[in-house]
Amino acid sequence: MNPKFLQLNGMTTVERHTMIERVKAALAASGAYILNFHMFSNASLVLEFEIPLDQLTRLGPAIHTTGLRLEQRSQELLDEWDQQTAARGAVESRDLPGTLQITFIHNEPDLIIEVPMVPG
Fold first, then answer.
1. Cα–Cα distance between 62 and 48 in angstroms, integer?
2. What is the b/e burial string over 61-79, where b = at least 16 CB atoms within 10 angstroms of the residue's CB?
3. Is residue 59 a contact partner of residue 30, using CB atoms and an 8 Å limit?
4. More confident site: 23 or 4
5. What is the value of pTM for the model shown?
6. Are 43 and 87 in contact (CB under 8 A)?
7. What's the mean per-residue pLDDT of the chain?
8. Rounded to an integer, what distance in angstroms lies between the CA atom of residue 43 and that of residue 12?
9. Residue 54: its pLDDT value, please?
10. Fewer Cβ within 10 Å of end Cβ, the chain: N or C?
């Protein structure tokens, strides 16, 4: 497996702001850096990131500490990479782009953000 893009999906019942801070810290701790994000009301968040390929084995454990439950396929991708890295040893040095989509499970009403009128 020589991934060109990593797509991870997870869900949580942890309060949204708390989970966002935890995930930001976990990504930073694993060597990743966030490039962009997209909020979908208070129901979902997508973080775009890059991580050095030789640091990818740190990502799964870092995310696990946040309390975010990765979907089965996402966890399988990370586990598969860990197994191949252990068997192969050396990893090429490049950044791997990816996304982490988080679904927030809660009973709150939709978050409504007022968009100001822009002349023109």
1. 17
2. ebbeebebbbeeebbebbe
3. yes
4. 23
5. 0.86
6. no
7. 89
8. 10
9. 86
10. C
pLDDT > 90 in the chain, percent: 64
Q: Are 111 and 62 in contact (CB under 8 A)?
A: no
The position carrying tokens 């968009």 is 115
CA distances from 88 to 1, 63, 83 (A): 11, 24, 9
DSSP E strand boundaries for the chain: 6-12, 33-40, 44-52, 69-70, 95-104
Provide the pairing of β-strand 6-12 with 95-104.
parallel
Q: Contact, 98 vs 46, CB < 8 A? A: no
Spatial distance between the Cα atoms of 21 and 3, rounded to a whole number of angstroms: 27
**Which pair of tokens denotes residue 14?**
């942890």
pLDDT at 1 over 60: no
Per-residue pLDDT tens digits for 67-80: 999 999 999 999 98
At 87-120, the pLDDT tens digits run 776 667 789 999 999 999 988 877 777 778 887 6
Relative to beta strand 33-40, strand 44-52 is antiparallel
